[in-house]
Amino acid sequence: MDTSQQQALAQLKIPAQLKRGGGRGPGTILAVVAGIIVLGLVVHTLTGRGEREPDAREAGSEGATAPSVTNAPPKSGDVVLTVSGYVSPRERIAISPKFQGTVRAIHVTKGDMVKRGDVLVELEDDEQRARLSEAQGDLAQAEAALTNAIVNFERQRMLADRNIDTAQAMDAARRDRDMADARVRAARGRIDLAQTYLAWCTIRAPIDGTIMEKLVNPNELVTPLSYGGGSGPSTAFLAMANLEDLQVEIDLSEGDTPKAHVQQRCRISPEAYPEKVYSGYVAEIAPEANRSKGTLQVKVQIENPDRFLTPELSAKVEFLAD
Question: What is the pTM of this model?
């Protein structure tokens, strides 16, 4: 209790004269009682203020000395973001015909592993073989005509040198020789085209990989063009991918995009096998966001995938601090 409070309490004491009833009148007594009430209010006010002031001072002191809280930067290797995505091949190839034809045989089925150059599908090639034979016959005729034109031109040149025949006749012989030579080149071009179409009847694997889908059966018509969606001929034989070249595709929220960057290290764990952990890195960040979903696509390349990683499985990806 401070000095001002002690003085106020001292003034509340009843004078000795009043205790003895020293002949004071009723007015004096009322005045004294009123003064006591006023003094009591003053003391109450001072006491409440005195109790609150230390709290304010303490609060001010605590506010002045309380240390500020800051987030420490993550250490190298710390997880800065965890999201989920789906495993997918980096490249999925749909193998289509280069011209309309009928499937003769399919040498693979879904799940088969193939090497580049292995025969996958054969188309009927009777028409292409016939065209090749026709082109070869045209070439033989053109070469015979060229031989005859060359002999005639040499004869005309000798006659022109001896002034036996006119220069006009020699020019005509030269023109016939050149036209015969052009026919030979055209016939050879038709042979090359027929051989190309014949080669296209045998479809080979363009890469090492696994057959993901088998879309046609023998005797079905296939074409590189579509005639009205699913009601028309098939536009692809097979779909294949290299299962040793896998990524995790992630739709990253806009608010998390600052936490990811190209070549950032990651840890990948498939949801089906949470004990399996693979290393990887951010291989690609889409240059354009998806407005409707509010996301940005990120592709994380998986290093050294194995048989436990199957396309379309969900996987958890942890983005690590540099």
Answer: 0.60
